[in-house]
């Protein structure tokens, strides 16, 4: 797996994560000697100080131990605590820095505490291999159930998740999965996109674009369906020239598309953007070019992250019910731990949050209020 020097996560933590993952997957076994600090520094292309910090942390956690003049060895593969004796739920996230998933963590923690459970967090750092290792690790240390935000972009569950399902191990997904047999709590993404697009239509915009997620993103294409459904319902043409894709679902990719706005062969007078981070990047690029939001182009995002209300032009968005997603996921897990019946798929209705970027105060009243 290695490390990514472009990743803002500290390098010593990435190195520790990499060594820890090799221990969990048995590529490094108890008693094995690991490379010298100098060899590790060359391997990871970092300083000796960075390597030493990573190894010190792993030693404190009980994964490694050193013998003077001999080297560093694998101590044990898991903490000495047996979590099966505690009421504990593991939460495997794709990115702890993601503002959407951080809100789910908050609601899940509150609900778990209320129900007398501890919540253990892990971060897969957007690596599917690490995600599967963390799922295996949590099961090995005896957590009672798992909440998972998967990196997978396939509509069916991964083999690791299918194995849990077949073994009737308590789990629930909080990242989109289409498979109707897999336990899931999430937002009705198609309906949310419909609401965002309908809102812009009712205000009076004629050329409404959609900035979609990267290729292969199921949620992006689900929101595309909602966008198209709204246009069709209101007898508006679907213009392929008004639909573009992000390189990544982040601020910078939205900014890059905003910088290209003046070169568009057909310029939208309003855009619905896959997520808020990309919408905020798009907005910033538009404003830097001397254009105005919403006069030159109106913008609607999706998620309702905290930064929206503090943007130069506060962002209209579709709010996902993150407070309910985390709480319902915990309740569903606890029901499954107690062998009680619970719904498999839970779809929650989103809400339109109207702010200045949609131009409602200028043109008319926003729909969905």
Task: Summarize the model shown.
This protein has 369 residues and is α/β, with parallel strands linked by helices. The protein contains twelve helices and 14 strands.
Describe the structure.
It is a single chain. It is globular, with a radius of gyration of 23 Å. It has 369 residues and is an alpha/beta fold. The protein folds into three domains: 11-74, Orthogonal Bundle (Arc Repressor Mutant, subunit A); 83-187 and 322-348, 3-Layer(aba) Sandwich (Rossmann fold); 189-320 and 351-363, Response regulator (Rossmann fold), CATH 3.40.50.2300. β1 and β2 form a beta hairpin. α4 packs across α11, α7 packs parallel to α8 (218-233) and α9 (251-259) runs parallel beside α10 (276-288). 40% of the residues lie in helices and 16% in strands. The relative contact order is 0.11. The termini are far apart. It has a six-stranded mixed sheet with strand order 9-8-10-11-12-14, sandwiched between helices. A four-stranded parallel sheet has the order 4-3-5-6, sandwiched between helices.
